[in-house]
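pinned: reference chain
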Amino acid sequence: QPALKPVIVTKGASKRQLDQEEVPAHWKDQLGLKSKILKSVMECHLQSRIKVTALLVILLLITGFKLIPNSPTQNTQVTVSLSENPVDFIDMAAEIPGLFQEAAPYRSNLSYFWQENPEVKEALPAAFLENYKSFCWFNKTNQAELLCLPRLYLGGFIKCGSTELHEKINFHPDIQYGAVKEHKWWSRYRLPHNWTEMRNFVKRPFSSYLRGLQPWKVGTSTVLFDSSATLVWHYLFWEERYPELEERPYSYADVIHAITPHAKVLVVVRNPIDRLWSGYLFFLGHNWPSTFGPKNLSAEAFDKAVRNEIDRFRVCVKEKGFRKCCFDTKHLDRYDRAVVPIALSIYVCYIREWKEKFGDQLKVIRLEDYMGDRAKTLASIYEFVDLPPMQHDEINQQIESHSRVKNKGKHKNLAMLKSTRDLLNSFYKPFNEELARVMGDERFLYG
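pinned: its structure tokens
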């Protein structure tokens, strides 16, 4: 081809200007095509920007935000968490319709328990000895050794008085609880697992639990009892054990009822707000390891922690449902300035499954009633477990000769803020109402 002289195209030159230059035809075609492509790209880009801007405006209007949030002339609406907003009233029953109506009923699967603890099934007899009040049998491998399981279980919640009640129940000569007050085998020592950073529990065999109950002291009229308060609610870190499941595969009520269906169960509760506050003062006020948080307690710090936990629990219930959140490890058994276990005071979540399994074989005691008349409460417990009655004077004499278990925390005179108590009253109200309905007793309203 003939030599071509260089062509200088000025910026913004039109196709008509290009045609007037001495440019080969194929150059003109290429430059014209590029111009069309560039024009199309610019038009698409402009349309995209318009669409994106319009979409953002629509989204901001839907969420209630304004385009100029810092403008003094705009009435800005901002969504904040409870910890930043001084909310004084919560009505979860109104906020979450059908609060107690689970999408799917709880389904127990005891096959998990038997797989985890095959030695339990191996040790149990075909039938218990009929002439014993407790559930006793002779060891399959040693017919001379008597083994027994409790007839009575005492469960409760942190700072509800289970230690006090345990000691006073033991006044009756036919009560026997073994080597320790809380064996905690069913809820803690069956499986090795970590419970916070400060405690590592080693698995204990079923035989160690049976011998810890000291069956050689059991007579035919003896009521053996286990005062492991955690039996009612302690399912910590079940999420790690069953990562494939959305819920616990079984409850301890399922397990105890499957093995000893005629057992009796006591549960002690107290005003849910007082329980929460007492636990806060106890754990942070004593010389606990630093994993429980700083020791500088204050009503303001408690108030902030309560608001944060209520906020977290409300979100959890909306996303997962009421039952799942009650047993969520993140909501249980931890006291520090950031977290207080408000779920542990929602008694109905834990008591309901025991009531469904044991019916009239479950007795729930209010700490307030016990403190009002300890002799009367103890007499009702002895009757509940079919023990020979003790006279009230005899019980009172025993009570007077033993000191009452007290919370000796140095912060016992610290008072909760009224606004915090009012908030907790409104938060716990629907749960107390449901507990009163389940138990058929208005005393659990705690109004």
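why pinned: The chain is about 45% helix and 10% strand. Residues 1-31, 63-85, 289-293 have pLDDT under 50 and may be disordered.
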